Amino acid sequence: MDTQQNTALTRALAEVPGPLPTSGVIHITLPHTDRFTVVGNHLAQHPDLSCTAVGLAVRIQSLPQGAKVGIKALAARCKEGEKRIAAALRELEAHGYLRRVRDRLPSGRIITRTVFCNRPTALLRPRHPAGAPPQPAKPEPAPAPAPTAEAPAPDLPAPQPAPPQAPLSVPPSPAPLFVPRVPPPTAPKAPRRPLPQPSALTPGLDRAATAFLSDLHRHAPQFMLSEEDVRRLVPGVAAWLERAACPDAIRRVLTDDPPHPLKHPAKLLTYRLTELLPPAPPGVDDLAALARPRITVTPFQTCDDCDRAFRSPTPGHCRDCREDRARRTAYAQAAA
After folding, report:
1. pTM surpassing 0.85?
2. CA–CA dist 287, 280 (Å, integer)
């Protein structure tokens, strides 16, 4: 059966000016009347940007002012994952298309603005202030007519030498308009923290951690680990168990909300075992300090004279008996 020909495509090819090439792409250019974005070839054919970065730049350039262009916002619109989007944004920032600048609002609050420039090289050229027209060139004075033989030139005073001009000062180079806050992809990365280790990997802890990791795929099927991964992750799980963490709580923290698709479950477990390690449980002395009452209660005492109860740190007499004893002592001294 013959291949069906698209009539509209055949008609459009017939309208392409010039002879059609025998290989390579053939452009059918139709004018846009609405919903279009102008993209420069310096971006579309950038030799150092990846196709993901170029496509992400076109997506950002087509969005309206104030649209969210964070990693999570772009990941919700695009099919690429957050890691690829973050790498593409770092490429755009390294080549000047994307900048993150800090600005202070009139209220004093400091915010971070994301700025996208469609022509970053144009920012390096001197520009006229906004709304100011370019200064017109000053017209050069017309040269004086040369004297002719019929009319002798009048006697003119000798021209005075021009005063020496001060050397032109070179203006200082302007400060950079944007300061990148995200390091370029070639920047050295900080070393990763090592996997936590227990104070002593006892046989009991080793068996419990091995059983926990071997049984993990029954609760989360995507966390199927190899025997080598289990042996490597046993010290990290043992450190959690040593800190009195419940196995159900450990399983929930390690397997909650994994990325889709999960390509390297062992790497994700290594990261979460290291970064989410709980603190060591408090000791007996720390718990005793928490249980110690903060308010000192004065005990009850029994008065030696009237047997009435009163609060006092030491035994003795109540207030009434003390006052009565003081009055009697005063009377006796006055009578004497």
Report:
1. no
2. 13
